[in-house]
Design goal:
This protein is of the alpha+beta class. It has 16 helices and 15 strands. Helix 2 runs parallel beside helix 11. It starts with 11 loop residues before the first helix and ends in a 21-residue tail after the last helix. It folds into 3 domains: 71 residues, 2-Layer Sandwich (Alpha-Beta Plaits), CATH 3.30.70; 247 residues, no CATH class; 186 residues, Multidrug efflux transporter AcrB transmembrane fold. The chain is 44% helix and 16% strand. It has a 5-stranded mixed β-barrel. 42% of the residues are buried.
Length: 591
């Protein structure tokens, strides 16, 4: 018995096309279910469609600092700008880096665009204010309202990674040229729940009366002080809105109430006196390592005018008792640090405490650059009304519908029955694209802008092109005289290579465009790349298995005129067959 000839058996798609179809069906159901369960049933719209203001800021190197544009400074700037935008009462604002030197600020509709540009593009307000009183305000262990908690605690910059302990190793401002014995012992970080309630100290030398620390205290006669005391009692620093609005609209010459934080989940509210030193008085500041202690510190150097003012305020604070020997470093109305002092400081000063490298660099950036660690220029500002955004979205959807209709007409006229497979594939691709875009909004902040809509429209042609490549390969096999089922399987390897190469080129172009561009063009690149990947998934897991199943039906296998696979219309010819030659018996030659 002759051994069977070696050959390739049927592929897994040919043998079990239902598995691939079931897999993509499960993926569609899971994505759709996740979309409805998350409550985000529509893609998040970008500023140009929903309305609002989009500001692109480009970082610039400053003279003498060629390497100032780095990830640390960019992240610091993002945090500061985000706090400013939130101070406007804006919800769902986006502040994020783009590339190595750009920051994109997207502010939704309902915000004054001019005010937003002033808040985002200008240097923040940085002031040094004397601390008159401080009180803990934590969600877990709130201090009774009206009882000020004097403390020598230093309030490090939010986000500092130092861990508070019972020894309270905190921050203090010292003269770097003084001997170690001349520097005062600092009162450390506040430990929630461990603060002691003492009588409210008086604000000697500050020119501002203090708020009363006792509910039974008689309110001062001064109306301005009474108002300040009332604001201090009502202020809840655990409320993000109150934290950002506490000092809004105040002047440097006013006494204010403000919030600060030393550890996540723990907040302090302060009564601060008038500002006597501003961020403009700081010449430079930087994070360094103290040679004696080996700890990270922040060194400051003031201008000539700033040194005189700083010497005056620190000389007065050094004579006070905690917490009135502290000065609050106030950025945009929030206390980012409140070191204590024990001696008069002048041109140079150091802030020491439980810093790590990151927290020390961030505070140094805030002090050195007047909040923003880099200089930014507006690369572009786009303001779109909600009505204009709706018109743009409507126009984009109409363009997409026209493009889809033209593709459908072409498929039906030219491919007839095969158009059914192509249309089902387009529907599957559309469902996957829609659900993924809806889920990417809350997941990574993806917003569907107008260029992204254009990318989705272009993707219709890319997806249809993959179907056409496969259909034409199948039709070529039929022209060579093969029946449908063998033609489907023989056409797939060649079509697969062509589809993968074409989609790889499209995805590579989208990836390069996403990396090198700035602003809304990235939306186009992202959508183009996403739909290109989905095209591969749909062709491999839906179009090919569905084609295999349709090839087993009579409508397609018989090659009728409306199937799109009619051998006569395709000009098929019988396959070449080798004819066997029968040799006639030869007669013996005569001798």
């Amino acid at each position: 018995m002759a051994a069977p000839k070696k050959g390739r058996g049927p592929s897994s798609d040919q043998g079990r096309p239902g598995r691939a179809l079931a897999l993509i069906l499960i993926a569609m159901v899971a994505l759709t279910g996740g979309m409805f369960l998350s409550g985000h049933t529509t893609p998040r719209l970008g500023i140009d469609l929903a309305g609002g203001t989009s500001i692109t800021l480009k970082a610039k190197n400053q003279a003498g600092q060629p390497n100032a544009i780095n990830q640390t400074n960019m992240d610091t700037a993002v945090g500061i700008i985000e706090r400013r935008v939130n101070g406007l009462g804006v919800s769902e604002a986006e502040v994020q880096t783009q590339g190595s030197d750009n920051i994109i600020v997207n502010i939704p509709k309902g915000t004054n665009s001019e005010q937003a540009r002033e808040q985002v593009g200008t240097t923040a307000q940085l002031y040094f204010r004397p601390v008159l009183a401080v009180q803990a305000s934590t969600p877990e262990q709130p201090t009774p309202s009206g009882s000020a908690t004097p403390s020598g605690t230093a309030t490090p910059k939010p986000g500092a990674s130092g861990t508070p302990d019972d020894k309270n190793q905190g921050e203090e401002a010292t003269d770097p040229e003084a001997t170690p014995s001349a520097s005062a012992t600092t009162q450390g970080r506040a430990v929630p729940g461990a603060l002691k309630k003492d009588p409210t100290p008086s604000a000697t030398g500050s020119g501002e009366p203090k708020p009363s620390g006792s509910p039974e205290a008689t309110p001062p006669a001064d109306p301005a002080t009474a108002k300040l005391q009332e604001e201090f009692a009502k202020l809840d620093c655990t409320d993000p809105k109150q934290r950002t609005e506490a000092a809004q609209g105040t002047k440097p010459s006013d006494s204010i109430v403000a919030c600060g934080s030393n550890v996540p989940g723990s907040y302090e509210k302060y009564v601060l006196g008038p500002s006597e030193v501003s961020g403009r008085d700081v010449d430079q500041a930087q994070a360094t390592i103290d040679q004696q202690s080996g700890q990270w510190i922040v060194s400051m150097e003031f201008t000539s005018a700033g040194a005189k003012k700083f010497q005056t305020i620190t000389g007065r604070l050094a004579q006070q008792q905690p917490p009135m020997n502290q000065f609050g470093i106030v950025l945009d109305g929030e206390v980012v640090s409140a070191p204590s002092v024990s001696q008069a400081l002048s041109k140079n000063a150091q802030i020491s405490g439980s810093f790590d490298q990151q927290s020390a660099e961030e505070l140094g950036n805030i002090l050195s650059y007047g909040a923003l660690p880099l200089t930014f220029e507006e690369s572009s500002v786009t303001t779109v009304t909600a009505a204009l955004g709706g018109e743009q979205l409507k126009g984009g959807l109409i363009a997409g519908a026209i493009g889809l209709a033209l593709v459908v007409v072409y498929l039906v006229v030219y491919y007839r029955g095969l158009a059914f497979i192509a249309l089902l594939s387009l529907v599957v691709s559309g469902i996957l694209t829609y659900t993924i875009m809806s889920l990417l909004g809350p997941a990574i902040g993806f917003a569907l802008n107008l260029p992204a809509v254009c990318g989705a429209i272009v993707a219709i042609g890319i997806t249809a092109d993959s179907f056409i490549v496969y259909f034409e390969r199948v039709r070529d096999e039929i022209r060579e005289g093969r029946t449908l089922r063998p033609a489907i399987e023989r056409a797939w390897p060649r079509a697969r290579r062509t589809i993968l190469v074409s989609d790889f080129v499209s995805f590579l172009a989208a990836a390069v465009l996403f990396i090198v561009t700035v602003g809304k063009v990235q939306g186009f690149a992202f959508t183009l790349g996403l739909t290109t990947l989905l095209d591969v998934v749909v062709v491999f897991f839906f179009t090919k298995p569905l084609m295999t199943l349709m090839g087993r039906t009579k409508f397609f296998s018989k090659g009728g005129p409306w199937s799109g696979l009619d051998p006569k219309r395709l000009g098929a010819h019988p396959p070449l067959r080798r004819s066997r030659r029968v040799n006639a018996p030869t007669e013996p030659k005569e001798a």
